[in-house]
Amino acid sequence: METTRLSTKGQITVPKEIRDSHSWGAGTEFTVEETRDGLMLRPVNRFPKTKLEDVIGCLRTNRKAATLAEMDAGVTAMIKERHDRGRY
Question: What local confidence, expressed as pLDDT, does residue 59 receive?
Fold first, then answer.
């Protein structure tokens, strides 16, 4: 368990190991919630909540859509390849 100390300016430093494991860099914003046991810090969502209707069709491609049979063949080939390498 890591410990930290409150500075005279009211700041708390999150230990480097924890920052690195969560990819929190300088400027990461957090919400602060008071709980029965103390405080809870949560990083602010990097992306706003969206609905499928808001983003559907935003990625364009010139490729022809694959058929279900082509997708099934691709999955089967990948499973066989992984099995041959000893992954499964």
Answer: 81
Q: How far apart are the C-alpha atoms of 42 and 68, rounded to whole Å?
A: 41
Q: How far apart are CA 64 and CA 57, in angstroms?
A: 15
When divided into structural domains, the chain yields a total of 1
Residue ranges making up the domain that contains 60: 52-84
Annotate 72-81 with b (16+ C-beta within 10 A) or e (fewer).
eeeeeeeeee
72 occurs within a structural domain: yes
Condensed to tens digits (0 to 9), the pLDDT of residues 16-47 reads 999 999 999 999 999 999 999 999 999 998 77
